[in-house]
Write a structure and sequence with these properties.
The chain is mainly α and about 90 residues long. It has three helices and two strands; from the N terminus they run H-H-H-E-E. Strands 1-2 form a two-stranded antiparallel sheet. The chain starts with a helix and ends with a strand.
């Protein structure tokens, strides 16, 4: 059976289905691009590695502003972030 598969002639490279497949692919790409344009930029999911890295960099930059005591961006513990300084031994001093 393997010999029959290997000796079978190949189908034509450009068949009638290739044109239909190309048109379907172009149509689907057009639909996806139109739907992506409707989604607000802040709500759009990143699709490329560059977009994902940029989003991760923005998140890690925002985490630097977190209060070290209560770990909220808008401090809920009532202590100013400048007054909370980690000491050399790893404890927090005021």
């Amino acid at each position: 059976m393997t010999a029959q598969i290997m000796t079978r002639p190949r189908p034509d490279a450009a068949g009638p289905d290739d044109d239909a497949n190309a048109r379907l692919g172009a149509h689907l790409l057009d639909v996806v691009r139109r739907q992506d344009a409707v989604i607000p930029a802040g709500r759009r999911a990143p699709r490329t590695v560059a977009e994902m890295r940029a989003r991760l960099a923005a998140v890690s930059a925002a985490q630097e502003d977190v209060c070290p005591m209560c770990e909220y961006w808008q401090c809920r513990c009532g202590r100013p972030a400048a007054a909370v300084v980690p000491a050399v031994g790893g404890t927090v001093t005021a």
